[in-house]
Amino acid sequence: MIVILKENPDQAQLDSLLTWLKEQHVDVHPTIGEHHTILGLIGDTSKIDIDLISALDIVDDVRRVQEPYKSANRKFHPEDTVITAGNTRIGGGSLTLIAGPCSVESEEQIIGIAKAVKASGATMLRGGAFKPRTSPYAFQGMQIEGIRLLLRAKEETGLPICTEIMDASQLPLFEDIDVLQVGARNMQNFPLLKALGRTDKPVLLKRGMSATYQDLLMSAEYVLAGGNPNVILCERGIRTFENYTRNTLDLSIIPAVKALSHLPVIIDPSHATGKASMVPSMARAAVAGGADGLIIEVHNDPAHAKCDGPQSITPAAFDTLAGELMRIHAVIGGEN
Amino acid sequence: MIVILKENPDQAQLDSLLTWLKEQHVDVHPTIGEHHTILGLIGDTSKIDIDLISALDIVDDVRRVQEPYKSANRKFHPEDTVITAGNTRIGGGSLTLIAGPCSVESEEQIIGIAKAVKASGATMLRGGAFKPRTSPYAFQGMQIEGIRLLLRAKEETGLPICTEIMDASQLPLFEDIDVLQVGARNMQNFPLLKALGRTDKPVLLKRGMSATYQDLLMSAEYVLAGGNPNVILCERGIRTFENYTRNTLDLSIIPAVKALSHLPVIIDPSHATGKASMVPSMARAAVAGGADGLIIEVHNDPAHAKCDGPQSITPAAFDTLAGELMRIHAVIGGEN
Amino acid sequence: MIVILKENPDQAQLDSLLTWLKEQHVDVHPTIGEHHTILGLIGDTSKIDIDLISALDIVDDVRRVQEPYKSANRKFHPEDTVITAGNTRIGGGSLTLIAGPCSVESEEQIIGIAKAVKASGATMLRGGAFKPRTSPYAFQGMQIEGIRLLLRAKEETGLPICTEIMDASQLPLFEDIDVLQVGARNMQNFPLLKALGRTDKPVLLKRGMSATYQDLLMSAEYVLAGGNPNVILCERGIRTFENYTRNTLDLSIIPAVKALSHLPVIIDPSHATGKASMVPSMARAAVAGGADGLIIEVHNDPAHAKCDGPQSITPAAFDTLAGELMRIHAVIGGEN
Amino acid sequence: MIVILKENPDQAQLDSLLTWLKEQHVDVHPTIGEHHTILGLIGDTSKIDIDLISALDIVDDVRRVQEPYKSANRKFHPEDTVITAGNTRIGGGSLTLIAGPCSVESEEQIIGIAKAVKASGATMLRGGAFKPRTSPYAFQGMQIEGIRLLLRAKEETGLPICTEIMDASQLPLFEDIDVLQVGARNMQNFPLLKALGRTDKPVLLKRGMSATYQDLLMSAEYVLAGGNPNVILCERGIRTFENYTRNTLDLSIIPAVKALSHLPVIIDPSHATGKASMVPSMARAAVAGGADGLIIEVHNDPAHAKCDGPQSITPAAFDTLAGELMRIHAVIGGEN
């Protein structure tokens, strides 16, 4: 951590800061310039609250050198994390294909789609039971009944299940679910993250619409710090000025976060683009860019889907796409 | 609502759409162009799920004419909403000044600040008991004890209390709190919004960092639709590329949202700018721009605040500022 | 175009609007609702100035149905544009690889890099002679001498040359240059675009840092409307809140703009990410996503490059990458 | 400047860096940590090209402590710059009101508006002669004839004139114009900025839609470094995800840039909001926030303006507003 002092800092305040820093077990190396004095802090600064120092009258600016996350940091955990969910592994060179409808709508629908996507190569089934909707008047999901139908589809196909949890109070309902998804709007719902940290369930943590890579890793840190090492990061588009797409898919997260962290990265081209016609292109790009997998909305009848129909592709389109994705994955040296 | 069809739409699909629209009790007026056919939908379209229509193969685009919120809409509720919290009113021409520390830290601290800001003209006390922090290692607030100390400060000063609730499960603890704040990160925590809609407590709803005005109004709609009419909107900065300030304070929300809705609008210059030195300028701007009030962080010793010290002003600075704000409020014709 | 009128519009103003629209040769189809009357305008509205209508007192909103660009629009030009530059073609299924240093620094440097990238499969040489730099104190390029050295490299290798023009007054210097690059900061330098529209030189038009897809296509329209059909679009990252990367590479532009327009799309992963270590991943993603080509910074000695060293890859890294790109291009069915 | 080295840097490269830094006349103070070594650079680093250092293999990150602009920096020029344009002063406590139509349309129009706004208290006349328009098919301004009519209005009213220059080649036409406006799209048109730096004309430099405060100050530095000290900064909204307003007016620029620089700051609420109904609110906010002035679009007949009608207010509305602005300016202690 680097602390840049204002010109002519008050000596008493400076002494008090130096004493406090010593108590935090960090060493201080000052560099004295004409306009600025810089303090280099050496030691474990990850748990120092940067705001406490910035607030001082004598301080002009404070900048971190060390990242503020530790458990999620590749520096302290160089090997890729590989997560087991049901009969599948996420990370470590494999290609995870999570597919399914935005919402569970009926037993016939979810089992039909599950069988279709499994036949095409999907390794996990997704489907929303509890749905976060912008409007209170929009369909909010089948809720408990939706969870039951997802577990029926798992029985039928063997596919592990990934579905969204919206509140810590719902945890008991998710006992047999394989991967708990935290939606973009809940990425900084800290009570929920803490509750998930106390479980050992894999968590698919979606990046908030205005979250930086560091914010995402800090939210992962909440789960990891609670004792649950099974976090999968998921990019689903960020909010920018461009409004042709629903969000802007930020694929640079793949090389960036893989350099910063050991956690697997999954891409969601369906929510990012909001348009089925753009999903295949962005799915191929994600695999070529090094993603650990994809989560794709597939619906047997997108025009009558109860939500997010415009971004769902058909099982036939998924079948073609899955083949392309596996060929690209092979070209860049991945396992298949 | 306007539906723009693709060229040469399939007649069977079009008939099926027209039938479905009739079932939703909307009238359809078609306009047939060379490249496009446009369907004008007339009637109450606020509860039609736009996604259902967009997903159809024959549809190119769907655009709302009517806003998707109803209870929050000024068209259906032309008078300003005025909210009562303890002994103060928010909205309707008055100037609400909510002041206090980021976090409650001790009885002495919170009562001292409460007395000081009351003497300067504050009409409500703020103070965090449950703190959403980006890092799991940062101070998370005094929690239940913090609530107790806030109520002590209310006893001492008579100021109503505004403090943040992070999860619906905390509601019983907030029984004696006057205004429940929903933080920016929870603006789309729908289970929390629904729970607040079932109470009759005033809710201070902060705009999410990447929420549009419409998103904010839709979140307000969740509370209103649940039966609680007491929603106060709060701008606290949005996330943009500019990184000199913590966030970008978007004061245009004042005239915009006051045209769209009848709900009061409060501005938080402290979290928006993240710098105490910028707070007075932006506070004055907000009042001159027509805000119903401000929420400002005031700390007796910003350099030793347990969080957000850099953005807190001292009681003395607040005293000077409050005087300026009242004079500006008088110039633009507000009550004092 | 759709015009949404306010409630109870003044009849005289409405008549005057209807007369004016008739003079613009558009037909008007009204839809009368309870709160809104909607006018559907049918005919060629691409040249109607939307602001003229929005300004009317009786108008609530105006929305385009038809795109405001015509020459760049795929609807009126369904086949892909294929552009010839020297001995290479851009668009139409081929994979264009433009490589070279940020700045031309010496004859030895530019010819050395040109030979290396040609051997690895590059089809065009890039190199800056006139450099737009944020700081007036930074290296501004070798200017005229830089152009001369690029032409020397062309003589030696046969590679066509792509380099940036910053002002219309420089046009005579670019007579022998094959592709004129317009930088992101100049995307809406309309005098420059008009001047380029009067030539027949291929123009590589970079997307501005805050330009929408439509803005980019409107800037292309300036060149096309001037009579020059040879426009290549280039994505080089947009400005967002994420600051780990220099900009956010928006690969969704590939399927989006290819649906909207017939012009080729080239991706610049070097400027977008600003980090050499991220270039290969994003280059692979771009090809898999369907880009017509890439423009990549290659420098023999990145650590001593006069600008943008951090984002330049070495000729050896380019050689490996080019092989991967060709294999991915083959997998997705492109020509090689 | 702070250079953060990677772990275990190559000693030969480190020696070469240290030698090079010594040649740049900066002193180096190293701080050696467990994972990082930090080099503090002391001396004049404003002209060091940060990219040259970042590109080195041994360097992890480089951060500036000193700002990269010098002539625009308040540290080296503590007093406010006050600029004289015709018979008016900008900066130093006065309130500059620049008003007029988006475009000059006729002699009658421009003289009529000039007389009206002068009577209401405007201190300068604005009006576009050369218009940057997104579409090549939109009205491009009256051009040379527009300049002539502006000078006629100056003769009639004595108001100094502010109008936009789009290209350095137009400079001779602007000889009698008092303030040369550089549009947001040209903020980084470096050939234009250099040409303006060689004149002594006041330059109104508009912030680009995605420019940071630092970018804006660097563009000002281009003009200042050329020898022209007369730069007025102008905020006109930035591009964000919010699309209710045309752009997001960022009033925080007022206290921020006034702390960083000595140059005057003018606010343009018309282009920022794009809606006449929002202009008065944001104009009042700007003055209360400490702006040195405003530039406001006023049109006698907004519904028939040739461009930007929706954001123009009438002379009557301007008259009311100007009175409010002067009262607010008095309350916050400004001159009138």
In short:
The structure is a homotetramer of 336-residue chains. With 336 residues, chain A is α/β, with parallel strands linked by helices.
Structural commentary:
Four copies of one chain form a homotetramer. By secondary structure, chain A is α/β, with parallel strands linked by helices. Chain A is built from ten helices and 14 strands. In chain A, the strands form three sheets. Chain A has an eight-stranded parallel barrel, surrounded by five helices. Chain A has a four-stranded antiparallel beta sheet with strand order 2-3-1-4. In chain A, α3 runs parallel beside α10 (315-331). The model of chain A has no long low-confidence stretch (mean pLDDT 93). At the C-D interface, α2, α5 and α6 of C face α2, α5 and α6 of D.
Spell out the blueprint of helices and strands.
4 copies of one chain form a homotetramer.
Chain A: E1 2-5, H1 11-23, E2 27-32, E3 37-42, H2 50-54, E4 59-63, E5 83-85, E6 88-90, E7 96-100, H3 107-120, E8 124-126, H4 144-157, E9 161-164, E10 179-182, H5 190-197, E11 203-206, H6 213-225, E12 231-235, H7 253-260, E13 265-267, H8 269-273, H9 279-288, E14 293-297, H10 315-331
Helix pairs in contact in A: 3-4, 3-10, 5-6, 9-10
